[in-house]
Design brief:
The protein is α/β, with parallel strands linked by helices and about 325 residues long. About 40% of the residues lie in helices and about 20% in strands. A 7-stranded mixed sheet has the order 6-5-4-7-10-13-14, with helices on both faces. Strands 11-8-9-12 form a 4-stranded mixed sheet, with helices on one face. It has a 3-stranded antiparallel sheet with strand order 1-2-3, with helices on one face. The chain is globular. The structure holds 5-S-methyl-1-O-phosphono-5-thio-D-ribulose (MRU). 5-S-methyl-1-O-phosphono-5-thio-D-ribulose (MRU) binds next to helix 2 and strand 9.
Length: about 325
């Protein structure tokens, strides 16, 4: 697998891969200070729940080195994207490390390393779900570009592929930012995993044709009752999968679990600019558009969570681990 790492710390510098330019251009950008990290997260140069958490952790290192107020820097980072819990989780962990006089760079590196290890574990636990000849469907990008190492939803795919299991993945294009078409299809191509790009609205038809054996998606947050917040369109996909009896798996590291929020109703859903919806379309000038970036899939529609702690049929396993 040769997808470039989305977040890198080397020689005292933080570098982010500009994911807005993929797959056409692979370009990296140094981040001189916490304000530029916050901008990069808001503009989605770096995106994906775990990756924005890791970038924010290194952002806190930059803030400390510049002598900035760490509480204010944390607030600046938290305010960039409200939905993915990993961002606030990572920033709060950095504040706790500072309060305990621990080395912030070591803490950020630990967050990064733990993330890689969690992806490997998700891959190991999830790979047996992929039987020879299986057809999978995934939404958005919960791959190496959104996380580190193997990604989350893609981790079982990479591990199964390494083991020589033949399978095929339908990739939802994922309107409006096209993370599926631009990023997941690119990642799978680099890995040599067979895949087919489809528009988001094709899922029901494919399932009616018995063309999909299982769905695996990532998550930006899983609440205490197991509700799953992920890229807009995930809820519709889960409803359609339920109707057709197709298993619907959520792959997520424990850093995505939010034990403090009872259900999806308590999660702020990011609204992005309407331009992301209208720009590529021949829509009438001035048309009104809304752009909710995420939605909530009720726990009842999730077959199981593929986590670094194993395959959990409900969110209780997370709750026990976090107790
Ligand atoms: O808006 P994005 O591209 O940051 O949204 C990303 C997703 O919704 C992913 O599915 C999620 O963050 C999981 S990444 C492992």
């Amino acid at each position: 697998m040769s997808v470039p790492a989305p977040v890198k710390w080397h020689d005292g510098r933080l570098t982010l891969l500009d994911q807005r330019l993929l797959p056409g251009r692979v370009a990296f950008e140094d981040q001189p200070d916490v304000a530029s990290v916050a901008r990069a997260i808001r503009d989605m140069r770096v995106r994906g729940a775990p990756a924005i958490g890791i970038a924010a952790a290194y952002g806190m290192v930059l803030a400390e080195r510049a002598g900035a107020d760490l509480e204010q820097s944390a607030e600046q980072l938290r305010a960039t994207r409200p939905t993915a819990v990993n961002l606030a989780w990572a920033v709060d962990r950095m504040l706790r490390a500072h309060a305990a006089c621990r080395d912030l760079l070591a803490e950020a590196r630990a967050i990064h390393d733990e993330d890689r290890a969690m992806c490997e574990a998700i891959g190991r636990f999830g790979a047996p779900l992929i039987q020879p000849g299986a057809n999978l469907l995934t939404h958005c990008n919960a791959g190496a570009l959104a996380v580190s190492a193997l990604g989350t939803a893609t981790a079982p795919m990479y591990v199964a592929h390494r083991a020589g299991i033949p399978f095929h993945v339908y990739v939802d294009e994922t309107r409006p930012v096209l993370q599926g078409a631009r990023l997941t299809a690119w990642e799978l191509a680099q890995a040599g995993i067979a895949h087919t790009l489809v528009c988001d609205s094709a899922a029901a038809h494919l399932m009616a044709e018995n063309a999909v054996d299982l769905v695996i998606v990532g998550a930006d947050r899983v609440t205490a009752n197991g509700d799953t917040v992920n890229k807009i369109g995930t809820r519709a996909l889960a409803i359609v999968a339920d109707y057709h009896g197709v298993p619907f798996y959520v792959a997520c590291p424990s850093s995505t679990f939010d034990a403090d929020t009872a259900s999806g109703r308590g999660v702020p859903i990011e609204e992005r600019t309407s331009g992301e919806v209208t720009n590529p379309l021949p829509a009438p000038a001035g048309v009104r558009a809304r752009n909710p970036a995420f939605d909530v899939t009720p726990a009842s529609l999730v077959t199981a969570y593929i986590t670094d702690m194993g395959i959990l049929p409900t969110a209780d396993g997370f709750l026990r681990a976090c107790a």
